[in-house]
Amino acid sequence: MKRIGSLVLAVLLLTGTASAQEAAAQSPLELSAPSAVLMEKETGTILYEKEAKRQMEPASVTKVMTLLLIMEALDSGRISREDVVTVSARASGMGGSQVYLKEGEQMTVGELIKCITVVSGNDATVAMAEYLAGSESAFVQQMNQRAQELGMEDTNFVNCTGLPAPGHMTTAYDIALMSRELILNHPGIREYTTIWMDSIRDGAFGLTNTNRLVRFYEGTTGLKTGSTDSALYCMSATAERDGMELIAVVMAAPTAADRFEDAKATLDYGFGAYTLMQVYPESPLAPIPVLLGTVGQIQPELERECRVLVRKGEEGSVTTQLTLAQDLEAPVEAGQKVGQLEILVNGEIRDTVPIISSQQVQRLTTGGILQRMLRGLLMAA
Predict the structure, then answer these.
(1) Every domain range in the chain assigned CATH 3.40.710.10
(2) By CB neighbour count within 10 A (0-12 exposed, 13-18 middle, 19+ buried), where does 78 fall?
(3) What is the DSSP letter of 88?
(4) CATH 3.40.710.10 applies to domain 17-273
(5) 40: number of CA atoms within 13 Å, CB side?
(6) Nearest C-alpha neighbor of 58 from the set 149, 133, 187, 160
(7) Is 292 helix (H, G, I), strand (E, B) or coil?
(8) Cβ-contact 97, 122 below 8 angstroms
(9) How far is it, in rounded angstroms, from Cα 70 to Cα 194?
(10) pLDDT 10s digit of each residue in the chain, 381 long?
(11) What amino acid positions are annotated as catalytic residues?
(12) Secondary structure element (H or E) that encloses residue 173, with its range
């Protein structure tokens, strides 16, 4: 079967005709987990899926959403890592994975994030939920609202920890969505999710990451493991190689070892079959004339860099189509759209990048127009 799988992959790489979605359906992966998905971070493209929208218990992978709300509060300046949190009786009484916080104990936001990401501390998670929203129930409302905003249609959170609770369900696809939001827009989370071993309480309490991939898989950037008797073994694994970051979600693997092997196999498939290709216009962007402007032309530029996800071997099928304004009339604002660059793969548009003015151009006054006309007459004479 392995030889057949290798042949299938070789054919896929050589033909270069199937879309990413078709390739996902034809993937040779054989996983022990009943549900899984592989997503590329930058484009959000699904590269592989297996029962990806099947509702299941997420266990502590729930904490990806908890961490997303924490990082949004941090990056917006609403809280800081140095803020001191006082642990409540309820937080200290949480079961499951914990760092044995005591009622009244004080710990900084940064330390609590470390406890959540490294050892999946339920007590630390509830302490942060209460700090941010006043109560866990209020925080869970925020989690569900954020899930709706992200398009997580098959998710319902009942708590912030992932401890078993009726109705606490999500899908591999939805986990990939919230994982992408976290690592794409809050890269500072890596500072915590890549820790292998650390400590709290001035070194008195050791922490070892529940995500073994951090130590044993090249390029691992996170993200979160989870397991309960009913959810079995789950994880959202993220890794980056050659500038491409992938998200592999595995749900309900039979054992912890199976969970990690499934995640590695899924990531290996993505890194082996796909690449992010930097795309530039096929010719330099020429200046665009400006009518009635204080300067005669502007230099256009791409609004953003463009990278397109392609299957390896498909790089030669990437083409571009450039459209620029023939001329502009002042005033022109800096950042004003003056054209677009379409990126095509096998003739199909994969991305469109706006082309903008790199500068502001003021409109000539009546006096300025007369002066320009006079200079022209003098030069002609």
Answers:
(1) 17-273
(2) exposed
(3) P
(4) yes
(5) 26
(6) 160
(7) coil
(8) yes
(9) 17
(10) 333 344 333 433 333 434 444 444 456 799 999 999 999 999 999 999 999 999 999 999 999 999 999 999 999 999 999 999 999 999 999 989 999 999 999 999 999 999 999 999 999 999 999 999 999 999 999 999 999 999 999 999 999 999 999 999 999 999 999 999 999 999 999 999 999 999 999 999 999 999 999 999 999 999 999 999 999 999 999 999 999 999 999 999 999 999 999 999 999 999 999 999 999 998 899 999 999 999 999 999 999 999 999 999 999 999 999 999 998 999 999 999 999 999 999 999 999 999 999 999 999 887 666 676 677 676 766
(11) 60, 63, 120
(12) helix 172-185
Query: For residue 232, what are the β-bridge partners?
Result: 228
**369 Cα distance to chain centroid:** 51
For the domain with range 280-376, which CATH number is right: 3.40.50.300, 3.40.30.10, 2.60.410.10, 2.60.120.200? 2.60.410.10
Other CB atoms closer than 10 Å to residue 106's CB: what's the count?
Answer: 10
Q: What is the pTM of this model?
A: 0.87
Could you tell me which residues come within 8 angstroms of residue 96 by beta carbon, excluding any fewer than 6 positions away?
Answer: 60, 122, 161, 163, 228
Query: 276 - beta bridge partners?
Result: 309
